[in-house]
Specification:
single chain, alpha/beta, D-Maltodextrin-Binding Protein, domain 2, six-stranded mixed beta sheet, globular, disordered N terminus, signal, DctP_fam, TRAP_DctP_sf
């Protein structure tokens, strides 16, 4: 089996850290460093911990995953696709909404207002995963698990309760869909990696952020933005994918164990969504966040109006792959 050794030089953090095989008596332990752009307590962070625990359990300790949350390896979220492709890390959490510049197909789950509940998310992923797996193979990776962030809303310094409140608002978007929609609705939107959000808030470069209640409260964004407006923009899907060379070096029994761990992680993460939003809101209110669940209908209706052509534009860009969206819509009677 090919071995991958971690580089510990502090000057090379984030570069060429692969999987290392360590002798432990008669057995060998494979150690995988896994970056995540988000925090340990975020939805993706929780899912990564579950995945690592299940991998250790199902491989009888032969594979151990070392987490690197909050971009601590030096990679931004958008960097993860190439980092795994090139073998800089053996696996990573991929926020697919960052990858529209590579392939618009990655943006399916962040198309606005497609999903409303956990059953929608499950149906979308079931329709999506086979073709998504083929797309990941084009980047020298094997898809093993999926995760999600709860519905995206608006965190803001001042309450956003109507369309008028959105006009000229300096707001962080997280992909091209949200950028174009919020810009079209009158905001001064800017597309920004998560790692750049806190510095931008501290300097006043932005006054609002499009993200989930979950990520916001678990990252402390409420220290800057004490208001949250529910709009149920999207439930973006993320995935865990492993470098294909690393994968091919594993014996079949370990591949099977990792796939089982990934599938169980997906199921647990999706099921958690049913109670996650309510729990987030309770935590937010305990920290004095003003949670606006019923903004003026003009806000959402304008966002839906502006977003509709973006979905058709996505269809035109992905061509025949748009059949996946049609299959999902038919399955959910939408």
């Amino acid at each position: 089996m090919q071995a991958f050794f971690r580089i510990r030089d502090a000057l090379m953090v984030g570069a060429a850290i692969g999987a290392c095989t360590l002798a432990t008596g008669a057995a060998a332990e494979i150690v995988w460093d896994m970056p995540n752009a988000f925090g340990r307590n975020s939805s993706d962070g929780v899912a990564d911990v579950v995945f690592a625990e299940l991998v250790a359990e199902k491989t009888n300790g032969e594979i151990r995953i070392v987490h690197h949350f909050d971009g601590s390896l030096g990679y931004k979220g958008v960097d993860h696709l190439e980092a795994v492709q090139d073998g800089g890390v053996p696996l990573a959490r991929h926020a697919l909404s960052y990858y529209g510049g590579y392939d618009p197909y990655f943006l399916l789950s962040s198309q606005p207002f497609l999903v409303e509940n956990v059953d929608d998310v499950r149906a979308l992923y079931d329709a999506y995963k086979d073709e998504l797996g083929k797309t990941m193979e084009g980047y020298n990776q094997v898809l093993v698990s999926a995760g999600l962030f709860p519905p995206s809303g608006i965190w803001s310094r001042e309450p956003v309760e109507s369309l008028a409140d959105l006009q000229g608002l300096k707001i962080r978007a997280f992909d091209l869909n949200s950028l174009n929609t919020f810009t079209g609705a009158g905001a001064a939107a800017v597309n920004m990696n998560w790692g750049d959000v806190m510095p931008a808030l501290s300097t006043g470069a932005i006054d609002a952020v499009v993200t989930s209640a979950d990520l916001g409260i678990n990252s402390g964004i409420n220290d800057y933005l004490p208001n949250f407006t529910e709009i149920n923009w999207a439930v973006p899907i993320s995935v865990i994918a492993i470098n294909k060379d690393v994968w091919d070096a594993l014996p079949e029994n370990l591949q099977k164990a990792v796939l089982e761990a990934g599938a169980e992680t997906t199921d647990r993460t999706f099921a958690r969504l049913a109670t996650q939003v309510e729990g987030n809101y309770e935590a937010m209110k305990a920290k004095k966040v003003n949670v606006i669940t019923s903004p003026n209908p003009d806000l959402r209706s304008k966002l839906v109006e502006v977003a509709a052509p973006l979905i058709e534009d996505w269809r035109s860009k992905v061509g025949d792959k748009a059949a996946v969206l049609d299959a999902y819509l038919a399955a959910r009677g939408k």
